[in-house]
Amino acid sequence: MMRRKSFGAVMIAAIAFASFAIPVLASDQELATGERLAAVLRAGRSVISNHQSLINDESIAEKNLPGQRVVDEALELYAQREGKSLEPENLSDLDKQLFEAQIAAMREIVDENQDLIDAEGIGFKGFIPAIFARLVNERFAEKVGNLAQTKVTAPVDIVRNRKATPDEWERNVLESKFQTSAWERGKPYFDEVEKNGKPAFRMLIPEYYSASCLTCHGQPKGEVDVTGYPKEGGAEGDLAGAISITLFR
User: Fold this and answer.
1) For a Cys-Cys bond, which of 43, 94, 176, 246 suits 77, CB 3.0-4.6 Å?
2) In the chain, where are the structural domains located?
3) What DSSP designation does 163 have?
4) What confidence score (pLDDT) does residue 3 get?
């Protein structure tokens, strides 16, 4: 009897340990949702980047860059990059809600900044991709923050805005995964952890400096760029930050 009892106790302990040690795997749906939210945000940010010369043209008062135009161009760019258009009718009810909230956030942020965008006699407006993305993410959280959150963050030594400072989970992933030579370039990291006291699927997608980023983030390190921040001294291909996605379960 003692031997049977010991064996049973060992089996129970082993099962309990296995249950604790093996996290719940993300569903294909969660991965697809996270990747789509990041891709749409990137597309919107790229549209703002592509229109910087127009936005900062002090000789033009009417830029003809309303929120709907930015949204339309972002979805077109998304389709080019992904090889397929984004059809809301093919999304689940939850994904459609998140998509509509993200698109509405983009449209609203651009429309609310029309006076700045159209300001005549002012060159650099400060309405840059990073600011646009942060404002969109904040508006997205206002709309559906109990369901999902998006954020652009970066390693603590190069993050510029305190609102973008990585939380403990993001910092750990950046430092122990993305900043190591062993990590596969571009590979996202995901896990199931608690956030704000709620179980959540969390995903971090690395981003790297492109040539266009180096105007503000390149050499010489420490030189003040057009936005008023010291340059990070980065090089093309260096880790620039990450898009953080949270889907509450």
Assistant:
1) 43
2) 27-144, 147-249
3) G
4) 42
Return d(Cα 247, Cα 204) in angstroms, integer: 12
Distance CA 243, CA 39 (A): 10
Calpha distance 194→202 (Å, rounded): 9
Indicate the burial class of 149 (C-beta count within 10 angstroms; 0-12, 13-18, 19 or more).
buried
Q: What SS3 class is residue 194?
A: strand
Task: Count the Cβ atoms, other than its own, within 10 Å of residue 37.
Answer: 26
* Burial profile 209-230: b = 16 or more Cβ within 10 angstroms, e = fewer: beeebbebbbeeeeeeeeeeee
Q: What are 225's two structure tokens? A: 């760029």
Which secondary structure element, helix H or strand E, spans residue 48, and what is its range? helix 28-50
φ, ψ dihedrals at 224, nearest 5°: -75, 130
Length of the chain as a residue count: 249
Which pLDDT tens digit goes with each residue over 186-222?
Answer: 999 999 999 999 999 999 999 999 988 998 999 999 9
Question: Mean pLDDT for the chain?
Answer: 90
Query: Which class is domain 147-249?
Result: alpha beta
Q: Which amino acid is at 170?
A: E
Q: Are 102 and 136 spatial neighbours (Cβ–Cβ below 8 Å)?
A: yes
Q: Cα–Cα distance between 91 and 54 in angstroms, integer? A: 34
Q: Give the model's pLDDT for residue 27.
A: 86
16 sits in which H/E element: helix 2-21
Segment 45-67 mean pLDDT: 97
Of 17, 16, 33, which is closest to residue 201 (Cα–Cα)?
33
* Euclidean distance between CA atoms 158 and 160, whole angstroms: 6
